[in-house]
Amino acid sequence: MKPPLPLLLLLPLVATADPGALSPDCATTGANSVVSACLEKALQAQQARLEQALHQALKALPPPRRAELQRTQELWRQYRDAKCRLLYTPESGSGGLLDMQQCLLDETCRRTGELAGPANPGP
Questions:
Q1: What single DSSP character describes residue 17?
Q2: Exposed/middle/buried for 100, CB within 10 Å: 0-12, 13-18, 19+?
Q3: In CA terms, which of 15, 30, 40, 114 is 20 to 30 Å from 9?
Q4: Could you tell me the CATH number of the domain that includes residue 22?
């Protein structure tokens, strides 16, 4: 079995997500199942922030550009999911699952920052 994620791998999450998004147990537990549940909870919270940032970005765009951003967002989601799924296979066990969850959370945090950024780049 692959060891749980080291504390250093979780530090970028603290820097990119809201401080309350991660339970301290995510970084301190030795049980993969607890880390997985914690990462899942953090991902759900970040997903809500992403949806909020997307909503704000859509409101800031002129109507003709909104469809472009929605299409871009769907393509981004497909890319994120495909990229992160590569980290998990049945052979990788719970360690691979943690890697996939970490990837999903990291990518979602990055995209939220892109959408909420000062330039609000859109598509």
A1: S
A2: buried
A3: 114
A4: 1.20.1270
Q: Which two tokens stand for residue 85?
A: 């799924």
pLDDT, tens digit (0-9, with 9 covering 90-100), for 55-85: 999 999 998 899 999 999 999 999 999 999 9
User: pTM score, two decimals?
Assistant: 0.73
Amino acid at 119: A
Which residues lie closer than 8 Å to 9 by C-beta, 6 or more apart? 102
User: Residue 36 has which token pair?
Assistant: 């997985």
CB atoms within 10 A of CB 86: 11
Residue 31 located in a structural domain: yes
Question: If phi over 0 gives left and psi between -120 and 50 gives alpha, with beta otherwise, what is residue 120?
Answer: left
